């Protein structure tokens, strides 16, 4: 999950569930996606992770989405 600590909607907490996740990477990528989806486009966010695999997976998903929209 994630928490907004300052600014827009401070102290907002997201709760959710990922079913049939095959790995912790899938769960953390879903956290990234939900945090981004819940944040208004005019608000800057910073996401932190210690997993290079999560970063790579997220970047690949973004690239695939961009390729589809072209």
What structural class do the secondary elements suggest? mainly alpha
Low-confidence stretches: none
- Determine the oligomeric state from the structure: single chain
Distance between the termini: 32 Å
The proportion of residues in beta strands is: under 5%
| 3D shape | globular
Helix content: 40-55%
Which value, in Å, is the CA radius of gyration?
13 Å
Query: Number of DSSP strands?
Result: 0
Q: Summarize model confidence as the mean pLDDT.
A: 81
Figure out the total of helices.
2
Largest sheet: none
| H-E order | HH
What is this entry, summarized?
Helices cover 47% and strands 0% of the residues. The chain is built from 2 helices and no strands.
Notes on the structure:
By secondary structure, this protein is mainly α. It is 47% helix and 0% strand. Helix 1 (24-38) packs across helix 2 (52-69). The longest helix has 18 residues, at 52-69. The protein is globular. It starts with 23 loop residues before the first helix and ends with a helix.
List the helices and strands and how they pair.
Layout (H helix, E strand, L loop, with lengths): L23 H15 L13 H18 L1
Features:
70 residues; mainly alpha; globular
């Amino acid at each position: 999950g994630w928490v907004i600590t300052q600014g827009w909607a401070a102290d907002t907490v997201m709760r959710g569930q990922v079913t049939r996740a095959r790995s912790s990477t899938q769960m953390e990528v879903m956290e990234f996606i939900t945090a981004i989806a819940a944040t208004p486009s005019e608000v800057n966010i910073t996401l932190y992770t210690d997993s290079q695999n999560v970063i790579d997976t997220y970047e690949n998903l973004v690239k695939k989405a961009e390729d589809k929209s072209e």
